Amino acid sequence: MRLFEILCAGAMLAWNGTALAADATPPNIAEALASAGRPHTDILLDGQLKTAEVLAFAGVKPGQAAVQLLPETGYYARLLSLAVGSKGQLDIIVPMAAGPGMTLEQRRGALLPKEVIQGRPLSRIEYAYSLEDQPEFPNLTTYWETADAWMSLPKQADLVFSANAYHVFKSGEVGKFDAATMNKQIFQATNNGGTYLVIDNAADADTVKKEVTAAGFVLDGESKALAPASFTLRFKKPMDAANTNMRPPNPIAALSGYFGNTRRGRSEEHTSELQSHH
User: Cα 191–194–199 angle (5° rounding)?
Assistant: First the structure.
């Protein structure tokens, strides 16, 4: 009898722990995870990626201006778009390879592995534009820019989200990215008090800490949710940092080139190029 009581008590504690964990998930994140706009293949990854815990650790809130670097097939992009909500904005950035005489195919870069529901493999930028086209994510805008202008956005970010992108940037696969310059650009594009979250399964955590803090960020926390497969580091831009917002009050109406990329989404040139591929 005593053993039965212990087992029942243990089961009740486990159930309560699960309920408390679910209750601890912020409502905007819980709603994003439950959205009917997410593909089934994404939902299957939620438990493995501890997504509710990671997004809560990142501090994703309604109304934020968020940026995701190198969104790949869009797992986190869909969630970030839903979690910041209709009053928020998500800009996703795909670096464009650049060089004299490069063809469109070369500028697009390598194809990503084909998912089950796809008819053919897609490049990173094609994936990103397909996300922008989906009506479930009206607050999502894609930017396809070369390394020298890749963080030139209409609005400073409350959150910059990097998931397994850091080591790709440093590898040279998507262009010439110097870590010091890259992190400084991110620092300048982030609001004071804003968050820069870095998840990576291949970069060295200590190196990332050193490089990101050298740009001016401070290490604010480290989650073990994905350890040991990946590290998750949260950096903050100090509230008392010098103002790096060089944007005019109405950036969309500003002269083209005032602070870099002023277009929102695809230009006619990029649209026609992509259409010609199909």
Answer: 130
